Amino acid sequence: MLEHPSSLPISFQQRKRKIVNQISSNEYTDRSPQGFIDSDIRHLINDINLQEGLVTTSSCAGRVSIFLEGRKSLQTTIPRDQSASQHGIKDEQKNTMMPEMDNEASVRLASAGGKGGDGRWLWVSHSPVPEPDPDDEMYYSKLFGLSSTRNTGRTDSRKAGTRYVHFKFEPMILHVWTASLAHAQMVLTAALHAGFRESGGVNIHIARRDDQSLVMPMVGIRCQGLALETIIGSLPDTNEAVHDAPEALVTEEYLTMMVGIANERFAENTARTEKFRAKLLDLYQVNTHRVSQLGAAPRPQARSVGFEDTKTRRGRKRAEGLARKQTLQQQHEESPSPSREEQEELDFSILEFLS
């Protein structure tokens, strides 16, 4: 059962107030490509943050993105004691692309997933992709920043170091900081009910109160089953190609098909998000109603006319049994040979009295 709001950890309440004040400010920005909270998930965030013991820390309503990987290999290595001009490289290239390190100048490389190394988003949308212009045969290629013609002078796209363009659909992801294990369990129950099957605890915060440790879990709500990713373009990892548009590796028909699949998953993602919201609010209403009853005086039970409690009924039965026993004994004294029925009635009265 949830704790009473007055029993929530003070550190949680203070941090929640700070977070809510930040995201409510008109000057709020975050580290997402767009720099602010998605409008399609704002109502969910507001509903969660209105509940005692819950606060959101990061979110994404879901998105379709076109991402160009960063550089994966070193292009030129320059010893510190030699000038860039000796290697035929302009100074401005050295400053922007190959900063000096301890013994050599190099570029920052991308990770295995393509992040870093000057990787960048070519296009991002947190709502379904628009329908194509019927008069533009290369609508999606242009929208996603791809060159629709192959340049035969470029390096083969299969060569090591080639930077690929990813078409991605990523479903809703949400992180909710909770004030207790009971709050976390409620959030997780709602997430699994709505189909966000990869949800779970991602971090545990510990607070101290007197001699007790208060556990405040962070719950991640996510569903990789709806995620979608494919390669649609490439760019040679050369200094000459750094400002060029990536080449399309697929046809416009293929891009149209992928957009259709992504929009279908967007619709399912929206339905699951709303299902999560409804279930969470329902669970919260039930549990907070129980908490509100804690400490309240017990309600008097309605009693029907002639109601007897256990003590009164036992006393009445005993008095009736004694009176009946006395009557039967008097009848026995007047009749030396009681009938079988009278003897059984006497025995029954004695048993009833003893019970």
Describe the structure.
- The chain has 355 residues and is α+β, with helices and mostly antiparallel strands.
- Helix content is 37%, strand content 19%.
- The protein has eight helices and eleven strands.
- It has helices spanning 10-24, 39-49, 91-97, 139-143, 181-194, 252-292, 310-334, 340-354; strands at residues 54-60, 63-68, 78-79, 104-105, 120-125, 163-170, 173-178, 200-209, 212-221, 228-235, 247-248.
- Strands 5-2-6-10-11 form a five-stranded antiparallel beta sheet, covered by helices on one side. It has a four-stranded antiparallel beta sheet with strand order 1-7-9-8, sandwiched between helices.
- Helix 5 (181-194) packs across helix 6 and helix 7 runs antiparallel to helix 8.
- It is elongated and about 125 Å long.
Offer a concise description of the structure.
The protein is of the alpha+beta class and 355 residues long. The protein contains eight helices and eleven strands.
